[in-house]
Every structure is written in C-alpha cells, then in structure tokens.
TrEMBL record:
<dbReference type="GO" id="GO:0008967">
    <property type="term" value="F:phosphoglycolate phosphatase activity"/>
</dbReference>
<dbReference type="Pfam" id="PF13419">
    <property type="entry name" value="HAD_2"/>
</dbReference>
<keyword id="KW-0378">Hydrolase</keyword>
<dbReference type="InterPro" id="IPR041492">
    <property type="entry name" value="HAD_2"/>
</dbReference>
<comment type="similarity">
    <text>Belongs to the HAD-like hydrolase superfamily. CbbY/CbbZ/Gph/YieH family.</text>
</comment>
<dbReference type="InterPro" id="IPR006439">
    <property type="entry name" value="HAD-SF_hydro_IA"/>
</dbReference>
<dbReference type="GO" id="GO:0006281">
    <property type="term" value="P:DNA repair"/>
</dbReference>
<comment type="pathway">
    <text>Organic acid metabolism; glycolate biosynthesis; glycolate from 2-phosphoglycolate: step 1/1.</text>
</comment>
<dbReference type="InterPro" id="IPR023198">
    <property type="entry name" value="PGP-like_dom2"/>
</dbReference>
<keyword id="KW-0479">Metal-binding</keyword>
<keyword id="KW-0119">Carbohydrate metabolism</keyword>
<dbReference type="GO" id="GO:0046872">
    <property type="term" value="F:metal ion binding"/>
</dbReference>
<dbReference type="GO" id="GO:0005829">
    <property type="term" value="C:cytosol"/>
</dbReference>
<dbReference type="InterPro" id="IPR023214">
    <property type="entry name" value="HAD_sf"/>
</dbReference>
<dbReference type="GO" id="GO:0005975">
    <property type="term" value="P:carbohydrate metabolic process"/>
</dbReference>
<dbReference type="InterPro" id="IPR036412">
    <property type="entry name" value="HAD-like_sf"/>
</dbReference>
<protein>
    <recommendedName>
        <fullName>phosphoglycolate phosphatase</fullName>
        <ecNumber>3.1.3.18</ecNumber>
    </recommendedName>
</protein>
C-alpha cells in the first residue's frame, strides 16, 4: 500500500515554548502587588505560576502573598491593563523564527494553542514578528475550557484541517498541561525541555524531547510520518 501524506499540522504552546514571557509577567504582577503594598515575587516564583491562565496565576499569587480572595477581580483587572501592552522584556527562544519558517516552507499548517488571553497572544506574536507564520490562534478565552482540557487543542486542529476523530497532527509545548492535552487527543507531544515545566521530563508523556529548536523539523517529520501511517493503516 502506497500512502501519500500531506504535511501534518503542527500546533504550539506559546509561553515557555516559543517565547520567554515570564519577565514581563513578573513585572506586571509586581507592579500590581507594589501598588497595594504587598511584597513582590521573584522570577522563579512567577515562572512556576505560569501556564494555566491569568485567573489561576492570580489565585496562586493571592495564596502566596496571603491576600484577601475578595480582591481577586480587582487584581486581575489591574494586571490585564498592564499585561495587554507588556512586551519589552519578552524574548523569542533561539532558533524559533528559523524553525517556524522551515516548517511553514515545508507546507505544515501552523497554529497556536495557549492559555494566554487571545488579545495578548495576538500582541505578543506581532511584537515578536511571528504572527504571519500562524494560520490559527486559540487563546485561553477562545473556548469555554482551558488546557489541559482537550477542547482548545481540538479546536485548533480542526481549524488547521485535521480530522477531529483521529487527528494527524503534532503538538509542541513545554508543560504538564500541554502533555496532558495532547495525550487526551492521542496526538504526539514534542516537549521543549527549556520551558516552564514543574516536573521532570520523565514524568510527562511525550513522543520526544528537545532543547534546541533547530532539531524540531526532523522530529516533526519523523513523528508526523509515523502517526500518519498509523492512521492510514487503521
């Protein structure tokens, strides 16, 4: 049986995967905390709180600084007013731009599936000069659920043309939430080992791990072909 497979969609997480945004998030969090007279957080604390969306970030900040839960909505509102425009400290991880250009040039539809609010996602990608490379963006407020629920990733894959019943696609991320999200859809997960994860790589389900984005195209081709052939023969 000869099978000709189109290049599979590749969907990426954003924070901790393509961009190092924790310094800007820390600056915005600490500006709000300073304004109310609370002790600022260090970068490692903030990095450990990132990944589940703005509300969860602030639930963890409130718990860490023993603030009144009733202040949550005001704190989130003040944070978002800053976060919408916070890009000066954010950097793109090495080789990301070149790798995305390579994958797009090979015909892979590219998407983003992040728990970051969609408006901030658009702004971050535009600032990083990456926006033109993506055919689909799913943010933390694009669906009723956030990762690790499978709906955001499923929505991204559907928009990129993958079969929702058995998607031939790849998800690239850095965290436990990304790994669980990919596993729930049966999609190979490629782990960026230099990101914001809390646990060891061995504790996360992943098809392969990498710490240099220049290695990603070869991993995409290997695991994309393997998954596609499996689906074709089933």
């Amino acid at each position: 049986m000869n099978v000709c497979l189109a290049p599979c969609p590749v969907v990426f997480d954003l924070d901790g995967t393509l961009i190092d945004s924790a310094p800007d998030i820390q600056a915005c969090v600490n500006a709000v905390l300073t304004d109310i007279g609370a002790v600022p957080l260090d970068l490692n604390e903030v990095r450990g709180f990132v990944g589940e969306g703005v509300e969860t970030l602030w639930r963890k900040v409130v718990a860490a600084r023993r603030l009144d839960d009733a202040r949550m909505s005001d704190l989130v509102r003040a944070f978002m007013a800053l976060y919408e425009h916070a890009h000066d400290r954010t950097t793109v991880f090495p080789e990301v731009s070149e790798t995305l250009e390579t994958l797009a040039g090979r015909g892979h539809p590219l998407g983003i599936c992040t728990n970051k609010p969609l408006s901030v996602t658009h702004a971050a990608l535009a600032h990083a000069g990456l926006a033109h490379l993506f055919d689909c963006l799913i943010g933390g407020d694009s669906t009723p659920f956030r990762k690790p629920h499978p709906l955001p990733l499923r929505r991204a894959l559907e928009r990129l043309g993958a079969d929702p019943r058995r998607p031939h696609a790849i998800y690239v991320g850095d965290s436990e939430f990304d790994a669980a999200c990919a596993a729930s859809l049966g999609v190979p997960f490629l782990l960026y080992a230099q990101g914001y994860r809390r646990s060891g790589a061995s504790e996360m389900v992943h098809a392969a791990a990498f710490d240099d984005f220049s290695h990603l195209p070869a991993l995409v081709e290997a695991h994309g072909q393997r998954e596609g052939l499996s689906a074709a023969w089933s």
